[in-house]
């Protein structure tokens, strides 16, 4: 299994841009006249551009309804874009036909948010994992059962789980099955659409560590969509902050969390809880009216809640200006704002550290193979 992945991710892929998105947009009509003329349109994704290097994790953060999941589905062409280009390894996938699109889907997979709804309850785990192998003809028929066993071991599940149904597993185990299904066709890119938001906190760390371990071993590239910035800080190399269908800030993860430039980014980061009851930190409270995605305000779409708003913000749309290749911000006042408070936060209180150590179990620690085995060996 490892050999197959290493062949798929040769060294040349580690230094080249795997994915490039240029001016991508998708609008949805939510109301029409009796004769079919659009009356109201939601600009779910509106002119987004970015690139991802092979082997990186690109985080997408923002409030619910800002267009994160829609962008992830556009990249996989589960939703057709209205304009823009998506280049995967230099090839424009927006122009691909049906057969070529299936070949692309072998290289780009999706992990859904809800592990309870993303698995077919009428199929066993073995059937779920065999389906992509059959559709893409990745492995010869005699070796497919062996590949199922390898996939289950890869995500820390016992091979005996192959004959069980999804309802017989916990939420964390189901998400491991979903990860195994995504890995079955040896993809290069995986879109993780809030893969841990439906899981308990103790299970989240296991799934996140599994994703990071798989990335190190196989050179996977992730687009990690989440509204939990603490999770994104843990896993992402580069982060884009999205508001009402547009990027407002793009930066390496360390820089974004240490010195956010956009007021919207600062408000999001200020909401991250600090694991110390005695710690005191300035909290940014957003006032004003929450804009409608159907009728966003003119100028900057954040100006109705921005504490630093000036008249220019109400009339002129700010462009995403690049300070350098990997750092950009869309704010008229980015250079005038006072320095932001670092979001690293103080260390945990000593009592909380003792409590976490007391509840730590050996089974929570990764085995030598990088993941924990669940169920009988």
Mean pLDDT: 84
Strand content: 15-25%
Helical run tally = 12
Could you say which overall geometry the principal axes of the C-alpha atoms support? globular
How does the major sheet shape up?
8 strands, mixed
| Structure classification | alpha/beta
**CATH H-level superfamily of the domain at 2-31 and 38-236:** P-loop containing nucleotide triphosphate hydrolases
Q: Helical percent range? A: 25-40%
**Which series of helices and strands comes N to C?**
HEEEHEEHEHHHEHEHEEHHHEEH
Strand line-up across the major sheet: 6-7-8-3-9-10-12-11
Give the tally of β-strands. Answer: 12
Annotated CATH topology of the domain at 2-31 and 38-236: Rossmann fold
What is the distance, rounded to the nearest whole angstrom, between the alpha carbons of the first and last residues? 19 Å
Radius of gyration: 22 Å
CATH classification class of the domain at 2-31 and 38-236: Alpha Beta
CATH architecture of the domain at 2-31 and 38-236: 3-Layer(aba) Sandwich
Stretches where pLDDT is under 50 for at least 5 consecutive residues are 1-15, 360-373
């Amino acid at each position: 299994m490892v050999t197959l992945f290493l062949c798929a991710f040769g060294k040349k892929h580690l230094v080249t841009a795997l994915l490039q998105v240029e001016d991508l947009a998708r609008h949805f009509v939510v109301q029409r006249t009796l004769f079919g003329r659009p009356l109201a349109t939601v600009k779910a994704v509106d002119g987004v551009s970015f690139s991802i290097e092979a082997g990186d994790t690109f985080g997408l953060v923002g409030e619910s309804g800002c267009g994160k999941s829609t962008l992830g589905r556009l990249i996989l062409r589960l939703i057709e874009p209205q304009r823009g280009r998506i280049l995967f390894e230099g090839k424009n996938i927006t122009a691909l036909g049906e057969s070529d699109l299936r070949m692309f889907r072998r290289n780009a997979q999706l992990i859904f948010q809800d592990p309870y709804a993303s698995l077919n309850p009428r199929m066993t785990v073995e059937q779920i994992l065999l389906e992509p192998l059959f559709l893409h003809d990745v492995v010869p028929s005699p070796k497919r059962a062996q590949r199922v066993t390898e996939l289950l071991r890869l995500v820390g599940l016992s091979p005996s789980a192959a004959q069980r149904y999804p309802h017989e597993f916990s939420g964390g185990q189901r998400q491991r099955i979903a990860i195994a299904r995504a890995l079955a066709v040896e993809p290069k890119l995986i879109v993780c659409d809030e893969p841990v938001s439906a899981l308990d906190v103790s299970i989240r760390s296991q799934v996140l560590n599994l994703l990071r371990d798989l990335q190190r071993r196989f050179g996977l590239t992730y687009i990690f969509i989440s509204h939990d910035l603490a999770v994104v800080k843990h896993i992402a190399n580069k982060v884009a902050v999205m508001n009402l269908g547009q990027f407002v800030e793009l930066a390496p993860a360390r820089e974004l969390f240490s010195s956010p430039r956009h007021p919207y980014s600062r408000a999001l980061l200020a909401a991250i809880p600090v694991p110390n009851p005695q710690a005191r930190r300035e909290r940014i409270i957003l006032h004003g009216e929450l804009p409608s995605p159907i009728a966003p305000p003119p100028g900057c779409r954040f100006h109705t809640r921005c504490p630093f708003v000036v008249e220019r913000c109400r009339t002129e749309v700010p462009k995403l200006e690049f300070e350098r290749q990997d750092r950009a911000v869309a704010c008229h006042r980015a250079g005038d704002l006072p320095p932001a408070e670092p979001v690293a936060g103080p260390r945990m209180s000593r009592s909380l550290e003792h409590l976490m150590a007391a509840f730590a179990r050996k089974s929570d620690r990764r085995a030598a193979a990088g993941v924990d085995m669940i169920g009988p060996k």
